[in-house]
Amino acid sequence: MLPICPMSTSLTSARMYTQELQSVISRLDTGVIDRIADTIYQTYVDDNTVFILGNGGSATLATHIACDLGKNVASTGKRIRAISLTDNVAMLTAWANDTSYELVFAEQLRNLVRAGDLVFAISASGNSKNVLRAIEVGRDAGARIVGITGYHGGLMKALCDACFVVPSDNMQVIEDLHTVASHAMATILYNKILADTRFAPVELEAEIDHCAA
Question: What is the pTM of this model?
Answer without folding.
Answer: 0.89
